[in-house]
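Colleagues,

For the teaching module next term, I've prepared a clean inverse folding example: a structure given as tokens, and then the sequence designed for it. I'd like students to try predicting residues themselves before seeing the answer, so please don't circulate the second half yet.
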């Protein structure tokens, strides 16, 4: 009986350790991704945009540089339409222009005649 209790305790301890270490690694990666994105000055054409799952939205520009960010609000600037709130992954397509100033909380996505503005969440 004691052996089963010890084995269960060890198993649960291992599970808790694995979950905690994964969370620590993911938060560290999130902070690193945010720092890279936040300090970047981007004025390039989009090559690939995709949903980074838990990471947020991700995109690669023409020079091969990859950025990850967590957008939470979008606006169509041409109409200043605040009711239309698309996700970055839905709107962004290859060839669109991306503009972001260093340390700015807004990324602009230009598609033909419409410009979208995405604000994003700071990684903690």
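(Answer key — instructors only)
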């Amino acid at each position: 009986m004691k052996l089963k209790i010890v084995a269960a305790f060890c198993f649960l301890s291992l599970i808790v350790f694995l979950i905690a270490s994964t969370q620590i690694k993911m938060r560290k990666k999130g902070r690193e991704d945010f720092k890279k994105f936040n300090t970047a000055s981007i004025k390039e054409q989009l090559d690939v945009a995709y949903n980074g799952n838990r990471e947020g939205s991700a995109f690669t520009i023409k020079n091969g540089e990859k950025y990850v960010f967590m957008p939470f609000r979008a606006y169509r600037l041409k109409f200043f339409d605040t009711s239309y709130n698309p996700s970055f992954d839905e709107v962004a397509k290859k060839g669109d222009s991306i503009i972001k100033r260093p340390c700015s909380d807004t990324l602009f996505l230009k598609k033909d005649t419409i410009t979208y503005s995405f604000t994003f969440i700071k990684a903690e």
